[in-house]
């Protein structure tokens, strides 16, 4: 393997040349750059090249070659290869040139996406399946139809109910409305969204909460708009979100996805909003911890919004006292993700505590994290 990055077609040829799955761990160093090159789809790609890519990459979704080192908590070189192959096989869903994909006959697109759908059905975790269904059903034909058919297969196999699949479509309609035309005023937004925060489907709750966050931010971001149109105060809105989070989950994550957008929870400290936080006596830190406590227990994660844990790790990464409170309330995974996001000396005692704690998976990941720090 030369130092120069292989181009798309050369990488395809090299992958297709493997008659059997490579076993030596050393092959990891060669396969990963090949898959990386394949993932960089050229604008000139045509349907024949895309079909060749699917055929060449497909076997690596189940690559079982050994890996000498863990590259991330719980992920070996084998997992890394599988993840790269997964990224490549998702290209028909997320990255192929739209003009090319949307002009394909349904049968041609079905053949193109078939290796990825087969992997989803046999090897993917439940959240990954949910994310693929949401993204695929959100697109136009032929992508949407392929994923509608895939959802029917899951229903027949008893892995998803018809009511759950219908909920995905309802979440999609809500997302499209929010993106394309929104709501004429707060009264209309309230009439549509408030009740949906209690919907039994996690994606509908999350989507409604995101739209609620978008509309509230629009109403509160300027001094001139505040107090007009019937929008609630920020403090009242945060109390509502906390209650609905306790009822079913995924509401706070959806709300911050909409209200904070790319800033996440840090939006509550930005100048346009921070004066409201002070004026209304809002304790943002306490509110975040309240949401974290409400989220204890097994809950299905909504695939249509960024998870709450990512907002928490970004907000509390330099607050060891808050992370200690996460540990104390039993949010061990969230505490580990936050403490290890940008590790500091102040976070090390917490990571050590988690490494010898009672949660076996978190303890394993914390020990691996500490081991890699020692090696670096």
Top keywords for this entry?
disordered N terminus; mainly alpha; globular; two-stranded antiparallel ribbon; 376 residues; 64% helix
Output the radius of gyration: 23 Å
Number of helices: 21
Shape: globular
Task: For the largest sheet, list the strands in their spatial order.
Answer: 1-2
Q: Structural class, from helix and strand content?
A: mainly alpha
How many strands appear in the DSSP assignment?
2
Question: How large a portion of the residues is in β-strands, by DSSP E?
Answer: under 5%
Could you explain how this protein is built, in words?
The two termini are 26 Å apart. The protein has helices spanning 8-16, 28-39, 47-57, 77-89, 91-94, 98-101, 106-123, 126-138, 143-156, 162-180, 186-193, 202-220, 234-248, 251-259, 271-279, 284-294, 308-316, 320-329, 332-341, 348-355, 360-375; strands at 70-72, 75-76. It is built from 21 helices and 2 strands. Among the domains are: 181-304, no CATH class; 317-376, no CATH class. Strands 1-2 form a two-stranded antiparallel ribbon. The protein is globular and about 65 Å long. It has 376 residues and is mainly α.
Task: Give a quick precis of the structure.
The chain has 21 helices and 2 strands.
Topology:
Blueprint: H1 8-16, H2 28-39, H3 47-57, E1 70-72, E2 75-76, H4 77-89, H5 91-94, H6 98-101, H7 106-123, H8 126-138, H9 143-156, H10 162-180, H11 186-193, H12 202-220, H13 234-248, H14 251-259, H15 271-279, H16 284-294, H17 308-316, H18 320-329, H19 332-341, H20 348-355, H21 360-375
Antiparallel strand pairs: 1-2
